[in-house]
Specification:
nine-stranded mixed sheet, five-stranded mixed sheet, 12 helices
């Protein structure tokens, strides 16, 4: 099962709106088939593993990180495929809360006389599929907020210089983190100040995450990197109801997908944004700021994982803060996270925190 979970991790960021499932088929103490959900969401992991196993699947055991599906989608039900292949035993880590499955896959297997075991490495599998579960149960994707700061919590000097606070090793790791998410998200201020590409680079030819920008009035440079690549790499812009019609037309002509969201004060409402992204199938979003977006997500209790890269330099109070104003007046009201990892990355420090 540990191998199946490892296979599933390799597909994170590549198969939304489907979960990245891993499957291993064992016969006579030997692995005869393995697979993960393919890029784009199909074929499913079980189908891939059964194809590799061939006739050796008859009488074998299948280890799957998530309950096999029981409904007809782009592919036939995986539970039926396991039955048809003659699988004798299925070991499942976690149940599937999708109403189209939710126990029905297990029922198909047991009705066919297949031995079914559940709950093996369940917590590890639930961590793997947490984004999918969030979208099914809460209607929004799992959110990772990444901040790269000076030691005193600044993301830029007073005049906006920010490249580069952290070193090349940290920046390369960030590209790997982008690749394991369905989308990379920033605010309009970051898009204007940094002219980012928001792509995964230096990792070969791999599927690119969706680029998501929050900009109430669509105030993003029309000659910048995002605009010039909107037709080739998905760009979704979440804007307010008062965004100018002329700019909406321009961005649509450039190839961007526009998503109208409600407002919260003077900003696009983060809950509205994440609900819209969940409706479009995203399961994992990697937010890279800036300060206003970070503050709005934290204030709305929408951050599931907090990743910090801290560099050994200080910029002082005049530097730009990594998180904007949150209106916190009492420590008891501040968002709390639990430390899960800390390590050196080049000359910088990495810390990973999860929702308490």
């Amino acid at each position: 099962m540990a191998l199946a979970i490892s296979l599933g991790r390799r597909g994170l960021g590549r198969c939304w709106p489907n979960p990245s499932v891993g499957c291993v088929i064992v016969s006579g103490g030997r692995i005869v088939g393995r697979g993960r959900t393919a890029d784009g969401g199909a074929p499913h992991a079980e189908t891939e593993a059964l194809k590799q196993a061939g006739s050796l699947a008859n009488g074998a055991a299948a280890y799957v990180t998530l309950e096999p599906c029981a409904h007809q989608g782009r592919t036939p039900p995986c539970a039926n495929a396991l039955v048809g292949a003659g699988i004798a035993r299925v070991v499942i880590s976690a149940g599937d809360p999708n109403p189209q499955v939710n126990g029905q896959g297990i029922a198909i297997l047991r009705d066919a006389g297949i031995e079914v075991s559940t709950g093996v490495l369940q917590s590890e599998a639930e961590a793997l599929h947490e984004g999918f579960f969030k979208r099914i149960n809460l209607g929004r994707p799992y959110v990772t907020l990444k901040l790269a700061n000076s030691f005193d919590g600044r993301i830029a000097t007073a005049n906006g210089e920010s490249q580069w606070i952290t070193g090349p090793e940290a920046r390369r790791m960030v590209h790997g983190m982008r690749a394991s998410h369905d989308a990379v998200m920033v605010g309009g201020g970051t898009a204007r100040a940094d002219d980012p590409s928001l792509t995964v680079r230096g990792m070969g030819s791999i599927p690119q995450p969706v680029r998501v920008v929050l900009s109430r009035h669509l105030e993003i440079p029309l000659t910048g990197n995002l605009a010039t690549t909107a037709a080739e790499i998905p760009l979704w812009i979440c804007h307010g109801p008062d965004a100018p019609i002329e700019l909406r037309n321009v961005w649509e002509q450039l190839g961007a997908t526009l998503i109208e969201c409600r407002l919260s004060g003077q900003q696009v409402d983060p809950t509205s944004v994440l609900t819209a992204l969940g409706d479009k199938g995203l399961t994992r979003v990697f937010c890279e700021g800036g300060g206003a977006v970070a503050a709005s997500l934290l204030k709305a209790d929408l951050v599931d994982q907090l990743i910090g890269f801290t560099a050994g330099l200080t910029l002082g109070a005049e530097g730009q803060a990594s998180v904007g104003s949150m209106g916190v007046h009492r420590l008891a009201k501040a968002p709390r996270f639990e430390l899960t990892q800390t390590r050196a990355v080049g000359k910088d420090a990495l810390t990973v925190w999860r929702r308490a």
